[in-house]
Specification:
mainly beta, seven-stranded mixed beta sheet, 53% strand
């Protein structure tokens, strides 16, 4: 059974930074791509960032390009999302994804 546990969310002022982490267990983590998604109140869940199994290829939603960076540490079965220059519109619950599996989410609130 795959388990994904996110952490690192919180309340931050606009312009600030947060680093999200997602720890994976129960799967051969290093063989699979990982992703981050988010869901704002009243909106559908949307793609944020993706990283390949080797960690050398990533892609981002246009809304976060240049501000967010996804990375992974396969030795620790963990994927990260460094979020800089945060904006109020980044407020959402952020979810880690591995294939058909999702974490429980971590709340990010950006105040103006």
């Amino acid at each position: 059974q795959v388990q994904l546990v996110e952490s690192g969310g919180g309340l931050v002022q606009a312009g600030g930074s947060l680093r999200l982490s997602c720890a994976a267990s129960g799967h051969t983590f290093s063989s699979y791509a990982m992703g981050w998604f988010r869901q704002a109140p009243g909106k559908e869940r949307e793609f944020v960032a993706f990283i390949n199994w080797g960690g050398d290829s990533a892609r981002y939603a246009d809304s976060v390009k240049g501000r967010f960076t996804i990375s992974r540490d396969n030795a620790k079965n963990t994927v990260f999302l460094q979020m800089n220059s945060l904006k109020p519109e980044d407020t959402a619950v952020y979810y880690c994804n591995l294939g058909a599996f999702w974490g429980q989410g971590t709340q990010v609130i950006v105040s103006s």
